[in-house]
Design goal:
- Two copies of one chain form a homodimer.
- The first copy, chain A, is of the alpha+beta class and 112 residues long.
- Chain A has one domain: Arc Repressor Mutant, subunit A.
- In chain A, 52% of the residues lie in helices and 12% in strands.
- Chain A contains six helices and three strands.
- Chain A has a three-stranded antiparallel β-sheet with strand order 1-3-2.
- In chain A, strand 2 and strand 3 form a beta hairpin.
- In chain A, helix 1 runs antiparallel to helix 3.
- The longest helix of chain A has 14 residues.
- Chains A and B meet through helix 1 and helix 5 of A and helix 1 and helix 5 of B.
- The first copy, chain A, binds a DNA duplex (30 and 30 nucleotides) through helix 3.
- Chains A, B: Keywords: DNA-binding, Transcription, Transcription regulation.
- Chains A, B: It comes from Siphonobacter aquaeclarae.
- Chains A, B: Pfam families: HTH_20.
- Chains A, B: InterPro entries: ArsR-like_HTH, HTH_ArsR_DNA-bd_dom, HTH_MetalResp_TranReg, WH-like_DNA-bd_sf, WH_DNA-bd_sf.
DNA sequence: GATATAGTTCGATAGTCATAGAACATTCGA
DNA sequence: TCGAATGTTCTATGACTATCGAACTATATC
């Protein structure tokens, strides 16, 4: 049961986080994660891209420090590192998520 | 005296803004602008890149809606569209600027 | 063991991006 | 008018990126 490396809070970098959030597919994924209380299967979140592409995006999000990924059985469970990001960049994630709520282009993605 | 097109508040897009902010050179530029009360000459802000590169970055920032650029004589004056961004994405710019203050990689750029 | 499920990795591709130098445009001073 | 100052545009380049399909890995189920 392979697990993946995650940056520590110290290693989380502002420009990496902003870059990770600047892709519509990734931003939509983060938005969906934020609305859930528990860990989510990657495949449970609707997206218009191939699963190999999604795997790539999840890697970018994980390496930026935004999400935590844990494999269990055949599935890989993701969760938002909300508290850690909030501690490091106060208000940032909340502001982005609030802004994403209004963004039609992002919302449209979750309906595909 | 050529002037440049700017997106209206309606046209400002979240992912474009995040992308514009995700480059260290641009984020540093925005951070410097935010600290000033008045418009700034492009060249007045220290950066480690060539002026043609800076011109490119300023274009990206302008097209994203983050800054306003106005030419006057031989110089081009830039200012942050703080209020408009705040109205569109409440708290976002403030959170990013606050986070950038702590980011050593960004601060280092302004000392070059 | 065979098959299905859930993701990952690999290889390829087309596109974007940051970068710089050279040439150019425009304006201001001497 | 001739330079100097300040940026912009053009072109090129190397790096990175989003995308996909195919092959693969690992686990679960029958």
């Amino acid at each position: 049961m392979k697990q993946y490396p995650h940056p520590t809070a110290d290693q989380i970098n502002l420009t990496c986080v902003l870059h990770a959030l600047s892709d519509p597919v990734r931003l939509n994924f983060v938005r969906c994660l934020a609305e859930q209380l528990c860990e989510q299967r990657c495949g449970a979140i609707p997206t218009p891209v191939a699963k190999s592409t999604m795997s790539h995006h999840i890697r970018v999000l994980r390496e930026s420090g935004l999400i935590r990924v844990r494999t269990e059985g055949t599935q890989s469970l993701t969760s938002l590192r909300k508290d850690e990001i909030e501690a490091k960049f106060p208000g940032l994630l909340a502001a982005v998520l609030e802004a994403a709520k209004e963004d039609e282009a992002i919302i449209a993605l979750s309906e595909k």
